[in-house]
Amino acid sequence: MVNELILVLGGARSGKSEFAESLYANTANIYYIATGVLKTHDPEMQARIQKHQQRRPASWHTFEQYQGLETLIAQHQVDGYFIDDATMLVTNLFYDQLLQQTTASELDSYLAQMSADQLLTIETTILNAWQKILHARQHYQQSMVIVSNEVGLGVVPATKQTRVLRDIYGKVNQLLAQQATKVYFVISGIATQIK
């Protein structure tokens, strides 16, 4: 799997992470980038993180971060990078930008009054962050598996906040799929290659 970019899509609890991890099953020097960074006390999320940690081979190196991935890639040549997951990375970048401008308690009202240009700026910043990651991967000829949630199959979200996020997730998934060597879609633990 030299210099390949593989995108693994699926819904919540579809088995996408387990399938994606199996792609590197016989590869020792993997940098696993866990983007679900805990910022507050959340026992349910902590249990999910621990379950993922227990599944990983001991030879894999785990980094819990969602910023500066292009720098990590530039500094470490390894057998492969594994990003789990793209949607959590987008979520964290989205809220980082918003919380520079408002407080958590004012988030909904702040988002409601944001202009289309302001929302486009946030979206562009997130897409640019992904472009940097993809450029670094290509430049340093690193293999990479990215796990992401497919968010376009459900109902339209009820709030502006979740609609904006859903739209950005979709655009990031499209960007990743366009550049990927292979794309898999996982449903109920069954993976189908769609590219």
Relative strand content: 15-25%
> How large is the count of helical segments?
7
Uncertain stretches: none
Strands ordered across the widest β-sheet: 3-2-4-5-1-6-7
Q: Fraction of residues in helices? A: 40-55%
Report, as a whole number of angstroms, the end-to-end distance: 16 Å
The number of distinct β-strands equals 7
Largest sheet, strands/sense/barrel: 7 strands, mixed
* Average pLDDT, all residues: 91
Shape: globular
SSE pattern, N- to C-terminal: EHEHEHEHHHEHEE
Structural class: alpha/beta
**What is the alpha-carbon Rg in Å?**
17 Å
Q: In terms of topology, how is this protein built?
A:
Blueprint lengths: L4 E6 L5 H7 L7 E5 L8 H13 L5 E4 L4 H7 L4 E5 L1 H13 L8 H7 L2 H24 L4 E6 L10 H20 L2 E6 L2 E4 L2
Parallel strand pairs: 1-5, 1-6, 2-3, 2-4, 4-5
Antiparallel strand pairs: 6-7
Helix pairs in contact: 3-6, 4-7, 6-7
